[in-house]
Amino acid sequence: MDNLRKKASEAVRALRSRSFLVTLLAMTVSVAVLWIAFGADAVYIRDNGQLRLVYTTRSDARDILAERGIVTMAYDEVDFTGLTAGGVPEIEVTRAFDVKITTDDGTLELKTTGGTVGEILDSHGIDYDENDIINYPPGMYVQPGDEIVYQEVVVEQSVEQEPIEHETEYRGSSLLPRGRTRVIQAGSDGERELTYNKTMVDGEVVRTELESNVILESPVTEIILQGTADPVSPLDFGYQLDENGAPVNYAHKLTDQVATGYSAGSGAWGASGMSLSYGYVAVDPTEIPYGSKLYITSADGSFVYGYAIAADTGTGLMNDIIDVDLFYETYTESLLNGRRIVDIYVLA
Questions:
Q1: What percentage of residues in the chain have a pLDDT greater than 90?
Q2: What count of other Cβ atoms lies within 10 Å of the Cβ of residue 297?
Q3: Cβ–Cβ contacts within 10 Å for residue 188, how many?
Q4: pTM above 0.70, yes or no
């Protein structure tokens, strides 16, 4: 019987203890509800994409985070909309991550909460343009661990002057005795201006391109006359010549003719309307019609003007002072011709 009473007594005590705990829990919940209702504010905390709802009586974002044991680092960003009526405020924590920038000065490690490649470069004082080399597009958003490699590209223009060496032309001519030489046109160097575009990457020249080549002064060819048996005229009508260098076939021959030399400026025209150059000669057209093909040489073959075309005339020719005036492209050659006695073969 005593045993039974003891067990009943223990059962009553246990029931009373459980009722007390239930009562205490109910009171705690009631206090919490009253605290929320009359003093606490609901706040969303978004941390690295995770969202949770908390209640707090604090108004400073970092205090609210500390209250919840959320630790932020120096480079993390904390945005708080503030405790305002008409909605649940939100604290957003954006965690900083590591990004590297490599330039010719070395590699810089930095913390960032995000942004584009261009924004990262701008924020670190790196001015870039479309010529520069960047391993990522400037508009791409950076990710943790990215390494931005930047190379500065500079295009510099340089202008240089350089000489143009003149050429030397040797002309064989029977105007001089064999073995003798005479400069009939002095040569001179010209000058050109070269403009280069030099492309440099991080201060090192990687490409050089010629943009323009302007001739400031054209070179003048030096012409040296050499004494040979070569004819002056470059014309060739294809007639057969004998062992003395005279045509085998011809219409008629004028012997012991007085030949002088003359020259005129570039682009000169004869009385016949033909342009003048080596091989074109002046005659008395009443004796030798314009357009006649001729061969002119001295009787002993020491001087050979060669094939010629009657293309011009002059006062001395019309007055029988001279018989033929031989055209030269330089004044010096006309002086070297002087007055010579020649035979004129009229070919056609």
A1: 79
A2: 23
A3: 13
A4: no
